[in-house]
Design brief:
The protein has helices at about 20-25, 25-30, 40-55, 90-105, 125-130, 170-185, 185-190, 215-240, 260-270, 280-310, 330-340, 350-355, and strands at about 1-5, 70-75, 80-85, 115-125, 135-145, 150-155, 195-200, 205-215, 315-320, 320-325, 360-365, 370-375. By secondary structure, the chain is α+β, with helices and mostly antiparallel strands. It has 3 domains: about 1-240, no CATH class; about 260-310, no CATH class; about 315-375, no CATH class. Strand 7 and strand 8 (about 205-215) form a beta hairpin. The longest helix has 27 residues, at about 280-310. It binds iron/sulfur cluster. Iron/sulfur cluster (SF4) binds near residues 27 and 253.
């Protein structure tokens, strides 16, 4: 079985970064220094979203896709096979989301009164297009026409907890989806949708969480906020360094390594360290702790630079870590079932801990990217 992954066009202003750029528009226009290549977690998230879409559309249980490989669309309109395999852990992560969406689609399955779509491509140029193109993809959108209700469902595959309450990413999806549905079906205008239900399905933090809002209240307030952001984005585009605004949204900022506020914090940290923490007052120690993550940014940046240079004196590049994967998930499932292990089957590493597993059922596969290690590190080349 093959799972198709569609290439998406990366835009600097996207719904997933809305919490950040609504608060700090400069983060869009400062250089995104750490952005070469996707992190392993982000890439696995992309693979899981592709698998979840297939499972919803084709009414498949995620566990039956274990062992499937992935193929990705390329710029020439063709497909390229990927080395990745759909694992039991991935199946377990997407299962609650697939079940939630399938349940919704089947309970409200009357096509006339209820329409739904997975991986719905949306554009937001009508809202924010002054600065530059804004694109996004909503995981699952459903219009419950009979009840004047729009559903926006989002799968989160990570551990960082995300709430559907006052979530700008989901509110932008609602606006983009409303425009897309209205273009396809004028009844979306003539039979107004009055409420929107936002749902986050995050198996690794919080499970399924939903909130319903009124279009005329909460979404109207958010719409005004987006309109103000359009002007702020324009100002930040002209002079990004002058408009940085620090806050909780800095956590995943791709421009952090080029941010003047973060550089100022690192400099302040070094100045404070002229004195030993033992000789500092409480306020200074607290400030030191507050600034410490920003010093890490520069350490991370130095490591990234060393990798880019293929090593620097005293430091070398070690191969990626490895993990065991099933060679053939069906054969592994058959073997484990014969030994009393039920589906979904565990990973080879988990299976080996509890059972005798023949070596020819699994093999090593590289995971993650190259690592920077000290020249004399005894661990660098180990799995
Ligand atoms: S790190 Fe800097 S540019 Fe990024 S959001 Fe924070 S203040 Fe803005």
């Amino acid at each position: 079985m093959k799972i198709q992954v569609y290439s998406s066009h990366h835009t600097r202003i996207s719904p997933s970064g809305a919490h950040r750029w609504l608060n700090c528009p400069s983060s869009v226009f400062l250089p995104h220094l750490g952005e070469e290549g996707e992190s392993e977690a982000a890439w696995n998230g992309t693979l899981m979203h592709a698998a979840a879409a297939k499972a919803i559309i084709q009414r498949l249980r995620p566990s039956v896709m274990v062992g499937a490989t992935f193929t990705k669309s390329n710029e020439n309109g063709g497909w390229e096979d990927l080395p990745d395999t759909f694992t039991p852990e991935m199946a377990e992560t997407i299962r609650p989301y697939v079940e939630y969406c399938r349940e919704m689609a089947s309970v409200l399955g009357d096509k006339e009164a209820f329409v739904w779509e997975v991986e719905m491509p949306l554009d937001f140029d009508f809202l924010l297009g002054k600065a530059e193109a804004v694109r996004g993809t909503a995981d699952f959108v459903a219009w419950d026409r009979a009840n004047g209700l729009l559903h926006i469902v989002d799968l989160k595959t990570g551990h960082w907890p995300v709430s559907p309450v006052d979530n700008p990413q989901l509110m932008l999806y609602a606006m983009g989806a409303a425009k897309a549905i209205a273009n396809a079906d004028p009844r979306f205008i003539t039979e107004p949708t009055r409420r929107v239900t936002f749902t986050i399905v995050q198996p690794k933090a919080g499970g399924v969480q939903s909130v319903t809002v009124d279009v005329s209240k909460e979404l109207r307030v958010f719409f005004n906020q987006v309109m103000e952001a359009t002007d702020a984005l324009d100002r930040a585009m002209k002079d990004p360094e002058a408009h940085v605004v620090e806050g909780l949204w800095c956590k995943f900022c791709p421009a952090a390594a080029a941010c003047p506020a973060k550089l100022g914090n690192a400099v302040e940290f070094v100045e404070l360290m002229a004195q030993s923490p033992q000789d500092m007052g409480d306020r200074e120690v607290a400030r030191l702790l507050e600034l410490a993550p920003d010093v890490n940014l520069w350490i991370k940046e130095a490591k990234r630079e060393a990798v880019k240079r293929n090593g620097v004196p005293g430091w070398r590049i070690a191969p990626p870590r490895r993990k065991r994967v099933w060679k053939d998930a069906t054969a592994a499932e058959r073997y484990l079932a014969a030994n009393g292990v039920k589906t979904p089957i565990p990973s080879p590493a988990q299976a080996i801990k509890k059972h005798t597993v023949p070596d020819d059922l699994w093999h090593w596969e590289a995971t993650g990217s190259q690592r920077l290690v000290r020249d004399d590190s005894p661990f660098g080349d180990q799995a």
